[in-house]
Design a protein that fits this description.
By secondary structure, the chain is an alpha/beta fold. It contains nine helices and 13 strands. The strands form two sheets. The chain has an eight-stranded mixed beta sheet, with helices on one face. The protein has a five-stranded parallel beta sheet with strand order 2-1-3-4-5. The chain is elongated and about 70 Å long.
Length: 330
């Protein structure tokens, strides 16, 4: 941490939690506030007297540990779409406002999903293997036109994904808390509580829901068993939404294909069986990280700081009880 908090300063203090104290968000130092940059081991001192906290290290769980020292906190901003690693009972019950990076990752993640769908249809994994072996093998592949995609999670990321997949010619449905018809992005939304009865319709099952008590383990053995052989599952949400043992059983036999960007353990251990499972593509929790994403996150936070200083309502306020921004039934 750079220096102790000056409780007598006229400018409000904002603590900024970084993975390393030197790994700072770009372009925010000209804001009329005093920033206290720290890593997790300095957060206790940084939050004393601070009125706001920015989680640049957005996967950190350190806030819970220092909560008794956050004696003046009004606002926490998380530079991620998901807030599952932040929320705990004392924070939920407090008046502290939580905001997130709503909107920053929607389009990049939708593009990732479309790329995964195309790569699966065009059998790209097999092509890479053949190229590595210097083997020329002509094959026929599938078109994505008319393929069916069930998107589990009807928030902003799910909606951006639905729009892009529809534009590419796929038939799309959503799965959310409440079944409904005539949704502007999904058409039909089925109840995620009845997922096992719905996934048999889909060629691609896209997981785009927030991690909450209701979604943890949602994609379980029963849901996998109800999928048609050859179904392709894409997870760009959170690893624990999918039951890991059920996932391994489903992909281990080659019955289900998967594109996985998130896992219940990250980084994924080098000896994890998913690395060698057939028809599985693994990426390192990067589906939303298009070049320039850190600049966009910092600019979004800076805009909210200006609103906060002006006494205007903050953007992207999370419902702490639900665990996400209630933009519609998810």
């Amino acid at each position: 941490m750079d220096r102790p908090v000056d409780r007598l300063a006229d400018r409000p203090v904002i603590a900024v939690l970084c993975e390393r104290a030197s790994d700072r968000p770009p372009g925010i130092d000209d804001l009329p506030v005093d920033f206290q940059y720290c890593a997790a081991d300095g957060l206790r001192d940084a939050v004393r007297g601070a009125r706001a906290l920015m989680l640049w290290d957005f996967f950190s769980t350190a806030v819970r540990d220092v909560w008794p020292y956050a004696d003046n906190l009004e606002w926490i901003h998380v530079t991620a779409a998901g807030v599952d690693t932040l929320l705990f009972d004392e924070l939920r019950d407090s008046p502290v406002v939580v905001t997130n990076a709503h909107g920053v990752f929607d389009r990049p993640i939708a593009e990732y999903v479309l790329g995964a769908v195309i790569a699966h249809a065009k059998d790209s994994l097999r092509s890479f293997d053949l190229q590595r072996d210097h083997r020329w093998q002509h094959r026929e592949t599938r078109s994505i036109l008319g393929a069916k995609a069930l998107i589990v999670g009807t928030g902003a990321i799910g909606r951006a994904t639905a729009r892009l997949l529809r534009a590419a010619g796929l038939e799309v449905r959503g799965a959310g808390r409440v079944a409904r018809s005539d949704d502007p992005d999904f058409g039909e939304v089925v109840a995620s509580s009845n997922l096992a009865a719905e996934v048999g319709w889909a060629d691609h099952v896209v997981i785009a829901a927030p991690l909450t008590d209701a979604t943890r383990g949602l994609i379980d053995a029963g849901v996998f068993a109800a999928m048609r052989p050859g179904t392709h599952i894409v997870n760009i949400a959170r690893g624990p939404i999918v039951d890991n043992a059920a996932l391994l059983a489903a992909v281990g036999t080659g019955r289900i294909a998967a594109t996985l960007d998130v896992f219940d353990q990250e980084p994924l251990p080098a000896d994890h069986p998913l690395w060698d499972a057939p028809n599985v593509t693994i990426t390192a929790h990067m589906s939303g990280d298009a070049i320039g994403w850190r600049d966009t996150l910092a600019a979004q936070f800076a805009a909210n700081v200006r609103r906060w200083l002006a006494g205007e309502p903050l953007l992207n306020v999370v419902d702490k009880k639900l665990g996400y921004i209630p933009t519609g039934d998810r």
